[in-house]
Design goal:
By secondary structure, the chain is α+β, with helices and mostly antiparallel strands. The protein has helices spanning 52-70, 80-113, 125-128, 135-141, 143-157, 200-223, 247-263, 265-268; strands at 2-4, 7-9, 28-33, 37-41, 46-48, 117-121, 160-164, 188-190, 197-199, 240-242.
Length: 271
């Protein structure tokens, strides 16, 4: 039984094996999570950050002031108006929480349905929120919740989902591999070595995808003739990887795509 601000809910847990049909076409994508855009992928597509908390801050402050005004210090039992105001504040916060969850679910599912391999950053959220200037925005983005749903849907669709370290994904050039140092305020990647220019997040997403393909290559090599090794979600020791026995068959689609991209210079522009 759950007691939330808008009523009581009774939960029943049922263990059901779920399997979603997936049309494998060899599509691979890397995504760079951010605050300006919720994420930018390796094709340059950006998904807007809804910023539910930021957009509701004025109303939340108004409701919080109302609660404070109606609270009588030193009084054990408060007035009905106080409890009413407190309930309104709780409902407003609950709405934001549900909006975040809805956005995470829909965005993750859409990404899984249109790709066979998804690579994203293994961000250490607990460390990132220590930056007090960005803590509220990072919490509002709900990256952790999105990653959980991404892995959940990837598992049920039978696709591969890889979390790779985020080190140097923004600093390295995705075209030539050289390090191009830049501060957070610099939003455009301009490589002085090869001349490649791209949005900072797009460049990072391309690097993230490249890291994922490297991990995938290591997994394919290590599982040839050893399919039982595939059940370990951290097989590489460096990244999280949803990789089950059924994925071994599906990996052939990805391997074919990688080979085609290696042989076709035009296709390499996508990666």
């Amino acid at each position: 039984m759950l007691d939330v601000s808008n009523g009581y809910y009774c939960q029943f847990l049922v263990n059901v094996e779920r399997k979603e049909a997936h049309n494998f076409e060899g599509n691979v994508v890397g995504i760079d999570l951010g605050l300006n855009a919720f994420y930018t992928d390796s094709d340059g597509k950006a998904v807007d950050n809804p910023k539910y908390l930021r957009n509701s801050e004025r109303r939340l402050k108004k409701l919080q002031r109302r609660v404070s005004r109606r609270h009588e210090k030193g009084k054990k039992h408060q007035s009905n108006n106080y409890y009413k105001a407190r309930k309104q504040l709780a409902r407003a916060n609950l709405k934001i929480s549900r909006q975040r969850r809805d956005h995470a679910v829909k965005t993750a599912r859409a990404l899984v349905q249109s790709n066979d391999l998804i690579v994203y950053e293994d961000l250490k959220i607990a460390n990132l929120v220590k930056n007090h200037h960005l803590a509220k925005s990072i919490s509002d983005a709900s990256w952790y919740q999105f990653a959980e749903w991404l892995e959940y849907y990837a598992k049920h669709h039978g696709i591969v989902c890889v979390a790779v370290p985020s080190h140097f994904t923004s600093q390295n050039c995705s075209n030539c591999g050289q390090t191009v140092k830049k501060s957070l305020s610099v939003r455009t990647h301009k490589c002085p070595y090869c001349g490649y220019t791209a949005d900072r997040d797009h460049n990072a997403a391309r690097n993230i995808l490249a890291k994922g393909l490297e991990v995938l290559g290591a997994i394919v090599n290590s599982t040839e003739g050893h399919s039982e090794a595939g059940g370990n979600p951290k097989a590489t020791g460096e990244s999280d990887l949803w990789f089950g026995d059924s994925n071994i068959v599906n990996l052939s689609h990805l391997c074919e795509r990688i080979i085609i991209n290696d042989e076709n210079p035009a296709s390499n522009q996508r990666l």
